[in-house]
Every structure is written in structure tokens, then in C-alpha cells.
Fold this sequence. Notes:
Blueprint: E1 4-10, H1 13-27, E2 32-38, H2 44-52, E3 59-60, H3 70-88, E4 92-96, H4 100-111, E5 116-119, H5 134-144, E6 147-150, H6 153-161, E7 168-170, H7 174-182, H8 192-195, E8 203-208, H9 217-232, E9 236-241, H10 246-256, E10 262-265, H11 270-279, E11 282-285, H12 289-296, E12 301-303, H13 311-316, E13 319-321, H14 326-338, H15 340-347, H16 358-371, H17 378-384
Parallel strand pairs: 1-2, 1-4, 2-3, 4-5, 5-6, 6-7, 8-9, 8-11, 9-10, 11-12, 12-13
Helix pairs in contact: 1-2, 1-7, 1-16, 3-4, 4-5, 9-10, 9-14
Amino acid sequence: xxxxxxxxxxxxxxxxxxxxPLIKKLDQQPxxxxxxxxxxxxxxxxDQVLKIFSITPDYDLxxxxxxxxxxxxxxxxxxxxxxxxxxxxxxVVLVHGDTSTTLAAALAAFYKKIPVGHIEAGLRTNDxxxxxxxxxxxxxxxxxxDLHFAPTPKNKENLYKEGIxxxxxxxxNTVIDALQHTVDKKYNFNNKKLRDINFSQKRSLLLTAxxxxxxxxxxxxxxxxxxxxxREFFDIQFIIPVHLNPAVQRTIGSILRETPRVHLxxxxxxxxxxxxxxxxxxxxxxxxxxxEEAPSxxxxxxxxxxxxxxxxxxxxxxxxxxxxxERKVCEVASDILSNINKYNAMSKSINPYGDGQASQRIVQAxxxxxxxxxxxxxxxxxxxx
Length: 385
């Protein structure tokens, strides 16, 4: 039996988390020969995810360098992948989301006339500089890709508006699949500082902030808001995994290092992060992925950005978009912390990102495309999302 040769390419921690459950499903399918290429756009954080999900890459470009730029990342991936594609000769290349790895890998496959499947397709803010460079990366990949795996019907509509109307599949988001593997009520944290935190005595607020557009004054505003909130609410504590970006570390450290009930910790591996989310009362973030993950755990999310490419969660009521104005951050967070009815309305809203079967649907779509294996209940799922 001829196997479909699938090459999955990713390079950052968030990509790895979302691709890992799909790779596991691909490995289980006898009609598919699955290979993995990592670019190591991130290195240490990527390796943590690979270890947790027991994934051994077939190819590792290992491009990460000190002071790397968007230009160096893109060009090194293009050059490195040329050799990988010549050797592996895939029938289809799968890329994920919106990173420089995603764009460069899709472009490298296009140059070899190899079909591209885009996981997490169709997210848009319609502002090419926010998030930067992710919004443009996604848009360009959509114009290259042959198969579009959209998490939600709204993502599908975005593609339709751009004239992309064939081979668009609504699957749910694979990050929900990943949570099934990582979250455990009896989990013991790897991070020592987390093991020392008492989650039963204080309401824990998880905060992450690191996006390029929030560096400088916006991040300062966010940190000042944290200071005010811990003074206002004596029953809360903040847990802040501090991104490795020196600009992020300087700002957060200078403002919050001495603040009582603010725990500044190192970046977390995926298991620690997912289980920390599960034990948190409220999440404040400028991350995209957390907007998808937290609703599955029943955790309200306050998004510290002016726009989001994930409006479904806002419409569903699980997420509120509040920006980074110090006064507004304090007002909205105070309102949620003070009003249990408003908190419950957010925490009990339905997650719009699926049921944890996205990876299986993507595999089924590939089989339908290349082997004419019909997808069971696929259209029913599209209507139900």
C-alpha cells in the first residue's frame, strides 16, 4: 500500500504544543508516513514540548542564534528546508499558525511545488502590523496553502472573504486536544516556585505579557495595574512567568520584583503552564494561545491587547478584550474579582474552539483528499461548532 508522506514543520513552543497531538494521530495512521522537521526558531522551550510529548524530530535545522532577526530566521529556514525537502520528498507539508517558521516553510514547499496544509488557518485582525509579524505571516501562508484547516466557522468565513473557497475544513483547534494530554488534577509542578505556592489560600491570577507591540509603555501600564490590584484585593496573588526577552525582564523586574504576593517565575514548560492555568482563578494575557486554552478549563481571560485574531471567544463571553490602559485594566479586573455573577458568566461560557478531536479531523481530511476515504460526521461537526 502506498503511504502518504507528510512532513510537519514547526519551530516554536506554541507551534509544538498545537502540532504534537496531530503528529501523534498521524503516527497512528497506517496509510500515512509521518516525518517531523523542527527549525528550532525557539530551542530550549521547543525541546521541552518535544520531550513531554515524546516526539523525536527526523530533521532539526537548529537555527536559533543570539540576536536573531526576522530576516535571519526566514532565510536560514528557506536554505535549510531545501535540503530536507529534497531528501524527504513529502507529498504534503503541514505548517501551523503564524510564525516566521510557518511562512518560510510554506514558501520553501511552494518553491518545490509541494502542496501545503495550513493548520489553524483563517485567523485575522485585518491589521497587518498587529500582531506583528504574525498577521501578515498568516495572510501570506493562506495564499500559498492548498489545504486550510480552520478552527472555527468564523475563520472559514475570513478565508471565503479573501477568495479562498476550496479545501477549507472546519476542525476545531488542536490545542484543545493537547490539554487532554497535559492537565492532571494531581499534577506536581516541575517549577520549584510553583510547588511552594499555596493555591488554596489565595485566588491566583496568572499573567503573561510579552508581545512586541506591548513592549515599553503598555507593559509598564500593565505592571502598574498589577501593583494597584494587589493593594486593593488582599486575597489575590499574581503568578507571572517572565518571558526571556531582556526588555520584558527589565520592565517587569523593575516594577514588580518587590511587590508582595507577586510571584515572578521563569518561563514554564507546557505541562506546568497548562496545570497552572487549571489552578488559576483568572488569566490576564496578551498571548493568542491562552485565549483558546483557558476557556476549556473554565477560566475567564482578560486580553491585554487592543485587538484579537480570536474574536470567537469574545463573542462567546469567555474572553474580554481590555487593552493595556492602566486604569481600564484595573477597572475590569476589579469588576470581575468583585462580582461572582460576572465571573461565573465568563467561566461557564461554552468554548468555541472545539471538542478535542481536531487532530483526528485533520487526519481524516488528509485521507479524504488523497485516498478518497470519506469523513465520518465531518459535516455534522461543522454545523455543531
